[in-house]
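Box 3.1 A note on notation
Throughout this textbook, protein chains are presented in two layers. The first layer is the amino acid sequence; the second is a token string describing backbone geometry. Keep the layers aligned when reading.
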Amino acid sequence: MPLVAPPEQALEASRELERRIGAQIDAAGGWIGFDRYMQRALYEPGIGYYSGASRKFGAEGDFVTAPEMSTLFGRCLAGQCAQWLAHGGDEIVEFGAGSGALAAQVLGALRDAQALPRRYAIVELSATLRERQRNALVAAGGDLLARVQWLDALPERIEGIVLANEVLDAMPVRLFRYRAGEVLERGVARSGDGAFGWADRAADAAFAARVRQRLRDAWGDEAPAADYVSEIGEQAEAWVETVASRIATGAMLLVDYGFPRGEFYHPQRDTGTLRCHYRHLAHDDPFRWPGLQDLTAHVDFSAVGDAARRAGLDVLGFASQARFLLDCGLLDACAAIPREDLRAWTRETQAVQRMLSEAEMGELFKAIA
């Protein structure tokens, strides 16, 4: 299905972002790493994908996350949070709160269970998203707002729970190409007409060593692919390590799509996991309309666990989203939905099927604590 062109006003913002990135490429001698391109495409102030005012989440946006699909997702996470809060800590800190749906669901369920934390902090820089989150919380019950605090930066000390749903996949990644034993870093250059395109160059020694180690971990004695492209999520790993280091007592719960290392760097996954999302369509051209489409990469959960351990945390558990939600009582919660409103009941059960199905989110998405 062809992608429908954005309106002219949006295209002009995208052209401005192209000009800025192009100037950066020129200033750097004609080449920048893909992570630097992805950083600006997603987070350039005012015109990057996540910093702009366009709607990203839900039916009117580019993708739908589990909290937008069903309120049961947040209620399941709330059950896990209540168990942890009972053992220490009195706050929840959410990153990447998006539309505010997850915050509203978690707080609503904890209120029903009489287990509300002292504070629910949302780390959010976007004024547009803060307003959406505030509206979602008001709709869920105005009393919840009294527990919520918006933060501009990572807290110095966390005593409670860190939540992040589909956050790591949106952090810039470095791309590499492994060919005939040589490690190249894949970056972005400009052609004669100024268009962005792929350009590979010899990787620096430190990055090349990291690539070789991860491929050895995944491939073992298996013959390497003749030409292999993939990613390393250095920023996601650094983020996990930094946030983990701020947790004085409590736990971190991350839900995202990805694989453990052996699957992430499977020899047959030789084109990597980088994907673009625009109006609920996925494609593989990250240079189309910078700032107007989402760029994501799957998560190497082995690296996430290693980063948390470096900061002194223990891995409490790792499971598919389906197994995690089932263990948190999803089916019981689904069975308790009143059936008087058949349309609402059907919508919820269809969402539950999607969250659990191996063909959709159930196996691709993982939860790690």
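The CA atoms of residues 87 and 337 lie 30 Å apart. The first strand starts at residue 32 and ends at 33.
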